Every structure is written in C-alpha cells, then in structure tokens.
Amino acid sequence: VTMRPEPVSDEVSEPFWRAAAAETLVVEHCSSCERFVHPPRDRCPRCRGELAWRPVSGLGTVYSTTVVHRAWLEDFDRPVPYTLLLVELTEQQGLLMVSDCSEETGRDIRIGDPVTVVFERHPAFTLPQFRPAGTVAA
Amino acid sequence: MSTPPTVRRAAITGTGHSDLHTRGAHSLPDLALQAVRRAVHDAGLAMDDIDGLATYGTPAFPTVRREGVNAVGVATMLRLLRPRQLRWYCEPATGLVMTSIVEAVNAIESGRCEAVVVWRAMALPDGRYAASRRTTATQDEAFSAPFGATSILAWHALMYARYRHLYGASELSLGRLVVASHRAAERNEHAVAVPRPAGPADYLASPVVAAPRRRLDCDRPVAGCAAVVVTGARAARDGPHRPAYVAGLVQNTRPADPALHYTLGDAYETGRAVGTALWDRSDVTPGTVGAAQLYDGFSPTVFSWLEALGFCARGEAHEWVGGVHDASRFPVPVNTFGGSLGEGRLHGMGHVIEAARQVSGRAGTRQVPGCRSCVVTIGSPLINGGALLLQDD
Asked: Is B265 in the A-facing interface, judged by CB distances under 8 Å?
C-alpha cells in the first residue's frame, strides 16, 4: 500500500489545511510589516506583529526544480524518479512552497515558468500542488 | 576602520585520526580512543597532561543518540581516559565541530586549562540511513514531507539547481571539484579507502540522487574519529612542532529568516557576514591566506564558502573551481587533503586537522609551499556555520 505522510495541523497551521480542503490557498500576512509568512507562525518572525490568514492568487513561478532518484520515503505514492518543484508565489519575493509531480510532467518545467495551484485530494487531507499555468483549467 | 588582530594565546599542537571504516562492526569508543591517543602523542604530551575535554552532542546522523555506542561524549571519554589532571570539560548538546573548538580555545585563553583535547566521533548506521517510513508530518515538515521532500539533500539539490540557472554552472562544475578532491585524498594517508572517480567521465556516470546532485557530491560516511590538542602559546612554543595559532574564530550569529529552509541569498549573506568578521580582525586577506579548507558535506557548499569568503565574486566559484592543484588557475589551494568528499565524513574535524598541519609545515606530500596561514569553514554558511583562521605566528 502506498501513502503520503499526512500533514498534521496544529493550532497555528489549522486554517491553512482547512482552506486547502475547501480548495483555497491561504497564507499568513503580517498586519504590521505587511509581509506574507510561510510556513505558519504564531507571530510575525520579523517584527512580532499580528498575523492574519489571507487568500492568495495561487499563481507563482518555478523558483527551482529537482528530479529525485532515490526513495527517501518508504511506500511513498509517487515512485522514483519524481520531480520536486519549489514555487515562488507572485505575492512576494522569496515566498516559497513545495510541490511534487511525476517526472513526466516535470520534464518540460523550467525555472521561471508560470504555475498555478491545483488541489490534490487524498482520503484524509488535501494538498495544494502547482502545475504549469497553461495546463490547468480555469 | 580596522580592528587589531585577536591576541593569539591558543594553538593547535597535535592532531590524530583513527582508522576510518566504511563498513563492518567497529567499536566507536575504541576508534575515539585511538584518535585521541594519536593527537596527544602528536602534541608531544602524555595523557596525564590533558586537563580539558571538549566535544559536542549532535548525533552523527539524525538517529537516537546512544552514548558509548553510536556517540562518544565526555562521559565515555572520561571512562576511557581517566585523566588524572582533568580540570574542565564541556559537551554542548547541539552545534558543530566549531562549537567545541571555540569552547576549547576559551578554556585555554581564560587560563582554565593548559591542554584540551577536542574530538568528533562518527558512527555509521546500518542500512540506508536516509530512508524512512513516515505516516505523519508535523510542524514545518507538514509543508515539505507530504510532497516527498524529506531529505536535506532535496533542499540542497533545489538550491544548487537554482545556482546553475542563475550563474550558468555546467554539469561538470561540481564534477571537477569532486574529482580534484579525490585526487588530493590519494595523497592523504588518513583518507578512507574507497573507489575514487578517475576523471569527469566517472563523475558523470555516478548515480544521480536528486538532479543535478550525484552521490559523489555527498561526503563519504565513515565510522571513525578525529581529534586535536589545543594548548596555550607557551606550551605550543615548547612543543615538538611549529604551532598553528588560533588567529581568528567566527560563528554565524545572523538569525534565520522564516522559510522552509535556506535560500541561496541566505547562504551568501550569512557566509559573507562570517567572512567579513574573520578578515576584519586578521592581518591576512583572501589574497594572502595560504590555503582554505572549506566544508564540503555537500559539494556545492564549497562554492558558497568561496564566494562568501571573498575568494571570488558571487556566482563565480563554479568557473574557478576545477584544478585544486593548478596554481595558475587557482588563487588559493582548497581542500588539500581531499575534504570530506575524499577523506571521509568527519563533520569538519578533518578540515581543522589539515589546516593545522599545513600551517605547521607537516602536510607531507600535500604541503602547500610557504603556507603560513589557513582558513577553515565548518557547516553550511547558514546552519551554525563558522570560520577558523590558523597562523604560524
């Protein structure tokens, strides 16, 4: 049986996963220094300001990509080789999220390419993933 | 504005490696004792001259630490050595090799101790140490592990892919560094005995772990130990060798920005701060230092340090690394002992030992002619990174 490690939400990250289940991408935003923060924190790590969840566009560009050839995770549901994408959200420079896709899908993806969020449903959770912008139905 | 060099009162006067193994069952305490005895003997001292002990507690791999089994801390060393003159010991729970060097130098310079032995013992777990079975991911890992990004290697691969994209590094940039490191390791009698890539073709034929990173870009895990003896200046002058004085010690003190892990910018900015702090308090410069032993747990870290320490401009290290022993191309000899890539994974203690031996004029066939100073970096620039400068006066 193949699987994925289930993201365990806590009191800080719960809104992220609840929104993902409703197919919305949300990121914390600092009301004081006006910057987005990811992964979630209880206060702004830069200025200790209050954070509030904000919906974001789900658009980004590929910051970097690698093809994983070694199975680090036993029984992971994506066999090696698979592609990891690091996506920089359009909302802010350096606001990065991880995504994965098949090596076949990833083969034509280059750094700088535009990508769009899609929501990948698993029995117990939903993962925000990113795919080339042209391939996702609007 | 320049700051005067630090007063040089501590020196590395002895070095010791245990035998290094890549497989088989070995007693880590036995290996640690072997390295420590060799270092003390090399310093011209007897075990009863040792009055301080320093190491640190971070496990060699992210496994459960078992003292006396897969870790050799102060408790085990006390039991093994039973030093009669011991006055002080320390074992920070976390940190890097530099952490224990800093503690030893502080103990010497404060007058608390006269001869401190510092060691790092590395266990080799059975099987595929990087593979894991995970059903859940908590805290920050909830944003990486569910996507199959569970290894630190994945992050290093993503950052090096970005580096290649930005600066146009070729597939062989790292390969040339890796091959040169293995060539240097052939002249290092302590280096672990492993098959070595003969040239770029062997590098390109080696397995890819996470593109563009290959297995040969990762240091070679070993079971073994390396140790140094740190003494005060007077004992160093009276010792059997030309001393390698501690002329500079810098720890990274910049906070990490909120992120899943570091970015190239973080690595550069942080390393740059370490380098600036080192050179500003020293009378050598990147242009005059004799050699550089740069941490290479993963090969791209050498590029990070070359750029951060100011040996070349940002984004240029890949053009410049290639012939470690080709003085016409290389402003400074790098990893003259083969680095962790070629010698074996000693978390940087091998780098410290090589720097001491180069400065002492005791590097044998690896000796860089006229090498009177050597810089060492430990860790990636960001993560507990630090730098050490050794000089012969």
From this structure: yes
Sign of torsion over alpha carbons B288, B294, B299, B302:
negative
Residue B378: beta bridge partners?
A: B386
Residue A138 pLDDT level (bands cut at 50, 70, 90): low
The C-alpha atoms of residue A112 and residue B367 are separated, in whole angstroms, by 45
Mean pLDDT of B145-154: 90
The model's pTM is 0.94
| pLDDT tens, position by position, B94-131 | 889 999 999 999 999 999 999 999 999 999 987 666 66
For residue B227, which of B386, B25, B80, B330 has the smallest C-alpha distance?
Answer: B80
Section B153-161 average pLDDT: 92
- Of residues B145, B161, B265, nearest to A66 (C-beta): B161
Strands A59-68 and A114-121: antiparallel
Task: List the single residue in B144, B154, B265 with the smallest CB-CB distance to A68.
Answer: B154
Residues of A in contact with B265 (CB under 8 A): 94
pLDDT band, very low/low/confident/very high, at B61 (cuts 50, 70, 90): confident
Q: Give A-chain residues touching B158 at CB under 8 angstroms.
A: 63-66, 84, 86
Contact between B229 and B113 (Cβ < 8 Å): no
In chain B, whose CA is at the least distance from the CA of A10? Answer: B139
Kindly determine whether residue B154 and residue A4, on different chains, have CB atoms separated by under 8 Å: no
How far apart are the C-alpha atoms of B329 and A91, rounded to whole Å?
A: 43
**Is B137 within 8 Å of A7 (Cβ atoms)?**
yes
| B320: helix, strand or coil | helix
Q: How far is B296 from chain A (nearest CA, A)?
A: 20
In the DSSP assignment, the letter for residue B278 is H
Query: What three-state secondary structure class fits A131?
Result: strand
Nearest to A93 by CA among B160, B266, B147, B303: B266
As a whole number of angstroms, the distance between CA B323 and CA B132 comes to 38
Torsion from C-alpha of B10, B15, B21, B24, nearest 10 degrees: -80
Asked if ipTM goes beyond 0.85, one says yes
Point out the residue among B146, B157, B161 whose CB comes nearest to the CB of A7.
B146
Residue B60 CA to residue B117 CA, distance in Å, equals 19
Q: Suggest the residue from B147, B151, B206 to mutate for an interface test with chain A (most A CBs closer than 10 A).
A: B147
For the residues A34-63, what does the mean pLDDT come to?
A: 96
β-partners of residue B197 are none
- Kindly list the distances between the CA atom of residue B227 and the CA atoms of B5, B56, B350, B352, in Å, as whole numbers in the listed order: 26, 13, 9, 9
> Whose structure tokens read 């990250």?
A13
Closest CA relative to residue A87, chosen from A110, A108, A66, A115: A115
State the pLDDT at residue A95.
94
Q: How many Cβ atoms from other residues are within 10 Å of residue A92's Cβ? A: 16
**Nearest residue in A to B207, CA atom:** A69
